Amino acid sequence: MRAARQAGKKQMGVATMRIYGDSISGNCLKVKWTADHLGIPYEWIETDILKGESRTPEHLSLNPAGQVPAVVLDDGRALAQSNAIILYLAEGSALIPSDPFQRAKMLEWLFWEQYSHEPYVAVARFHMRYLGKAATDLDPRVVERGNAALARLDAATAGGEFLVPAGLSLADVALVAYTRVAEEGSFDLGRYPNVRRWIARCEAGLGIN
Ligand SMILES: N[C@@H](CCC(=O)N[C@@H](CS)C(=O)NCC(=O)O)C(=O)O
After folding, report:
1. 97 pLDDT exceeds 70?
2. From the centroid of its chain, how far is CA 63?
3. pLDDT of residue 160
4. Is the pTM of this model over 0.85?
5. Which residue among 24, 28, 33, 68 is best mutated to probe the pocket of ligand 1, counting the most ligand atoms within 8 A of its Cβ?
6. Nearest atom in ligand 1 to 22's CA
7. What are the DSSP calls for 146-168, one per residue?
8. Would the CB of 63 count as within 6 Å of ligand 1?
């Protein structure tokens, strides 16, 4: 594991949360963006998944699934799964709507992201960006399902500013992570103009580029 590098607002002498992440993984960036947006201090531990750094005994003791992101909270407790982590970090903030129905709609998007978007949009990108595959070697079903997910997002972002009417929420954080880099997985965002505009709004809202 590479030397830890400080990010966010680490306070000297005070235990800060540690984020174990791969800085080109959308799942990991969700956690970074949420912490940055909310001003939560953390130390970023760069973890190279291709070198097996998420499968070491040390990492498996934090996340038995052998994946990043994983965090160790300032009190020493470990937590994994990107969407579980951002839900924990954003508790009580405007990133989680206070209205129960809107909060449930946000969760609807988070569950959909993990089952119907990330397995296609992120996986196609993984094969190309991490493994160096050509677009022509991607599984056509993955590409088809990824485009279906992007088409659904395009319809959902046609009218509203963000995915949930209350405003920028974890639904946007989770879904923009891989959508904004979908072209690295061969998806043509030119086919989804509403998505492109929504990405720009999310990036402005989160202060990322
Ligand atoms: N559902 C998990 C997925 C995590 C995941 O797929 N992590 C990948 C990087 S994006 C990973 O650690 N892969 C390494 C491995 O499985 O060995 C989440 O949202 O955190």
Report:
1. yes
2. 17
3. 84
4. yes
5. 68
6. 9
7. HHHHHHHHHHHTTTSSSSSTTSS
8. no
Instruction: Evaluate whether 52 touches 76 at the Cβ level (below 8 Å).
Output: no
Summarised one tens digit per residue, pLDDT across range 135-146 is 999 999 999 999
The pLDDT, as a whole number, for residue 13 is 60
In 10 A of CB 184, how many CB atoms?
17
State the burial class of residue 136 (Cβ atoms within 10 Å of its Cβ: 0-12, 13-18, 19+): exposed
- The residue length of the chain stands at 209
Cβ-proximal residues to 30 (8 Å cutoff; 6+ apart), any chain: 69, 82, 83, 85, 86, 173, 174, 177
Q: List CB contacts of 48: < 8 A, sequence separation 6 or more.
A: 1, 2, 22
Nearest CA to ligand 1 atom 15: 67
* pLDDT of 167 higher than 80: yes
Pairing of strands 42-46, 70-72: unpaired
Question: How far does the chain reach from its first CA to its final CA, in angstroms?
Answer: 27
